[in-house]
Amino acid sequence: MNKSVPQPSECFTPMGECQEHCVDLTVGDAIARAGQKWGDRDAVVYRHQPLIDDVVWTYKDLDATAERLAAVLLELGYKPGEKVAVWSPNHPDWILLEYAIAKAGLVIVALNPLYRPRELKFALQDSGAAGIFYADRIGAHAPAEAIAKVREEAPSLRYAHSFSSIRADLLKREVGGMPKISIDPGQTFMIQYTSGTTGVPKAVRLSHKAITITARNSYSQWRLNENSRVCFGFPLFHVGGSGNSVPGACLNGATALPLYIFKPAVTLDILEHEHCTAFIGVPTMLLTMLDDPTIAGRDFSAMKSIIVGGAPVSHDLLHRCQDIFNAEVINCYGQTETCGVTTTTLYSDREEKKVETSGRPLVGVGVSIRDEEGQVVPRGELGQLFYRGPGRMTGYGSADTPVAEGDAWIASGDLARMDEDDFVSITGRKKEMIIRGGENLSPVEIEHYMKEHAAIADVAVIGVPDEKYGEVACAVVRLRPEAELSSEDILQWCAERISRWKVPEYVEFVDEFPMTPSGKIQKFILQKIMSERLGVADRQRQESQRQNKGNKS
Question: What is the pLDDT of residues 251-296, one digit of tens each?
Fold first, then answer.
């Protein structure tokens, strides 16, 4: 590449051999193919998890049971194209339902198990779900009671099934053979609600084809295949679970070992005793596992790789994973709107690339970095990341309206840079950028520096109101066990390593962060908590009131 001429921040990774088997494949086709190709291989394994009974399905068993359940659903009166909600933690039957719903030509609506009745009502009304499958218990809550409260306000809802009824009733019913159903791989299969870190849920529609291509290609690039035993921590209601980890294993013949609910010691038991070769999750999960007192003396000799999404990887985290798990760390980036994966690093990438970037575009994917006017910026400059590729959502909203022609690029809402080798560095959400006296500060960049401190387990940098600068940075820190450190210690450490204007104005400590079920820090909640703790929320309200009075006069 000619470095004397600024190159545009836009690139595309050709599909190549990864195009095989995926172009016209539905999720139902995927499990049928796996049942034929890897019939006796373990498909899904639940063991060493005290909160859930042991389950082991071969691919042949899972395919046959899913087909039987699909036939039951159609005989009950569900019509192809109708929507079926699933409301549960990572129960084995969530996966069974995913494949059965796919085979029946239905659309799965993935619901957060932490929803309260008001949120449940919104999702059922918004999606127009004809039915819902729900866990018998979710923590201390009885989902059946919540459904009963909102059912009259969800007029489309005809059916409600507990998970226990699947085996006690539905699979015992006598049905004829599975009817032939024509399913276009390009039609919507999954609705995911995005909200976790920002607030109001938005329905994202994903097609069969988008899911199967992205899942197969990501697993392929991560070298996960029929010899892999993959433990994953993403919730099944999250695109990283049902949209990538489940179909990715199926399409590549790997064994999936989902976590029912993430617990560090339980996860370490699974990795050790099930001889897992890979783990997929977010950095927070890894940090809590690495700090768990039961980790000492365990045997992780089968481990080969750790795939991390949702947040950048620090040098310290990478080295600890290599030392303790003897595994290579792969860092990736994606969104619900792109079926979970947009860019990824590879085994062969240098450490600097794994830490400082989120990799290059996945095969078949194009990435463009653009300014506010929509123009592609030169390499190295900051702009909003745009995506183009086979994992593209079919649209927002539960109504299956066609995507406008020519609207191939998706604006991610994330700020990023692209280097001369096509590696992309994510610097944070556009809306999370801190503007201090007119100077843009990237929370992710400051977090990246601070995570190098030996005593800091995790950190979130947020913007809080300031009378002089409008907004300043506040670093919220969770220390490692037994670590003792003051705010002044951290600020001095930062001042020696970070440009003066990037040093946080405040350092506050927490024992735990407000988190989404997928393990991401909810910064909008953290901002409210810290603004009130620091007393700046009151000052901001007073200033706003003064301005309003001045405007009225």
Answer: 999 999 999 999 999 999 999 999 999 999 988 899 899 999 999 9
Strands (E), 389-544: 395-396, 410-418, 424-429, 434-436, 439-441, 456-466, 470-479, 506-509
Q: Which domains does the chain have, with CATH numbers?
A: 26-31+58-184 (3.40.50.980), 433-552 (3.30.300.30)
Please report, as a single letter, which amino acid is at residue 442. S
Q: Please return the burial class of 398, using the count of CB atoms within 10 Å of its CB with bins 0-12, 13-18 and 19+.
A: buried
Which tokens in the block code for residue 421? 């080798």
Contact 490, 450 (CB under 8 A): yes
Instruction: Name the residue with tokens 């930062």.
Output: 494
HSE-CB of 329 using CA atoms within 13 angstroms: 31
Q: What is the model's pLDDT at position 273?
A: 98
Which segments of the chain have a pLDDT < 50?
1, 21-22, 196-198, 404-406, 540-553
- CA–CA separation, 276 vs 59, rounded Å? 18
Q: What is the pLDDT of residues 334-393, one digit of tens each?
A: 999 999 999 999 999 999 999 989 999 999 999 999 998 999 999 999 999 999 999 999
User: Are 217 and 13 a contacting pair, CB within 8 Å?
Assistant: no
